[in-house]
Amino acid sequence: MKIVLxxxxxxxxxxxxxxxxxxxxxxxxxxGIGREDTMADLPRYVDKIVKLRIFSDENGKTNxxxxxxxxxxxxxxxxxxYADCRxxxxxxxxxxxxxxxxxxxxxxxxxxxxxxVEVVEHGIFGADMKVSLENDGPFTVIL
Length: 143
Hints:
Elements: E1 2-15, E2 18-23, E3 26-32, H1 42-51, E4 55-56, E5 62-64, E6 72-77, H2 99-116, E7 120-122, E8 129-142
Helix pairs in contact: 1-2
C-alpha cells in the first residue's frame, strides 16, 4: 500500500463536472493498493493516519493529530502510485493491485476511516477524477 498524505486547508474531487467529495481542514489521501496488500494491512494504516501529529499547536510545533484539530479526510484511489518507470518511457503498473480486490480494500479503508473520523469523503474508484486542493504548508507525507 502506498499513501500520499497532504495536509490541506480544503480539498475536493470532481467526476464529470460534479463534486463527489469535499472537505475543509484535514488530509487529502491518495491511496494506492498493491498486489501484496490485504485487509489485514488496513487498520494499521488508518491508525497511523489519525494519530499522525503534523498539525501545529499553539507554539507552532507539529504536535496535534487529525483528531486533535477535528480534521476531515478526503480519500482518493490512485493506482498510478505503483507506476514503475525504471525501464523505458512508459510506466508499468504490474505492481498495482487487481482492480476488483483493490476496490474492496479501498471501500473497507474508507469504512475504517469513518469509524475514527467524523467527516470522511472520497472519490469514485476507477473514475476519471479531478482533484483540487489548497496544501497547508505545504506538508506532504508518504506512507
